[in-house]
Amino acid sequence: MAIPALNAAGPGSPVSPLDALPDAPTRRPAAVRQNAAWTWARRSLWAWPFPLAVLALWQLSALWGWVPEQVLPPPAAVFKVFGELLASGELWDHLRISMVRVFAGFGIGLSLGLVLGGAMGLSPTFRDYFFPLFKAFSQVPVIGWLPLLILVVGIDEGLKFLLIAKAALVPVAINTCQGIQNVPNRLVEVARVYGFTRWQMLRRVVFPAATAPIWNGVRYGLTHAWLALVVVELLASSEGIGFLIVYGRQLFQLDVVLAAVLAVGIVGFVIDKLLAVSEAWLLRWRKPGL
């Protein structure tokens, strides 16, 4: 959606109800908060039966010898190795290296994604020229760029940053573009009636209305960046959580492999939950149900 230039509102212009839109948090009634807490608790309880059933099946397979322990170690052995890796600090060292890589690459992809997505959302001309090329670029998986980038930048940290940035850029750019395009026309029309300038239109109407889809893109972007990091470290790294998985496989220590996989899942889950909490705080001004 292109935002045309608007005349500045004069000093005597009426105060727009949109001025208070992002700055006036709505306090939810106690009943609504209680219902929300009960819904969250119920969903949390329903989330446990399936993983517990998988864990029980895993334990039974080890106990009754359905699968050899050399191929699928029992849960107790995996948790023991996981604790030993934590206690020795080896797992923390690999995680620290991986986190530095993922946030550096994600920062690059986030910045480029917001700029490109904003440009495509605000300018139909730019979108018509650039989106087909961007669409083709996004269809190539991260692993498909690996041989070319190895020839260009080698296998050092630059390779990992670029591949992680590519994984994050695509969902951020697409969600930013769609969020801006889907801003309700009634909000734009009201802003025009009140004589908003172009900057006021963007700051008070477009960006607040597009915050939710943009933040969804940020969440997907960070999730994709974390997955891309593991893939890159599996193929071209001598340290990091992905390397730990490869190292365990080479030594046929499947308990180390599964402990590293468990660490990957825990970190990804924690990152997503932190982003969900941040989204709830960022969008606290919205009324319930909107």
TrEMBL record:
Residues 1-20 are annotated as: Disordered. It is found in: Cell membrane. One of its GO terms (cellular component) is plasma membrane. The keyword NADP does not apply. It comes from Acidovorax delafieldii. SUPFAM superfamilies: MetI-like. CDD domains: TM_PBP2 (cd06261). One of its GO terms (biological process) is alkanesulfonate transmembrane transport. This is Sulfonate transport system permease protein. Gene3D superfamilies: MetI-like (1.10.3720.10). The keyword Endoplasmic reticulum does not apply. It holds the Pfam family BPD_transp_1. Belongs to the binding-protein-dependent transport system permease family. The chain crosses the membrane at residues 45-67, 102-122, 134-155, 224-247, 254-271. It is a multi-pass membrane protein. Keywords: Cell membrane, Membrane, Transmembrane, Transmembrane helix, Transport. InterPro entries: MetI-like, MetI-like_sf. Residues 91-275 form the ABC transmembrane type-1 domain.
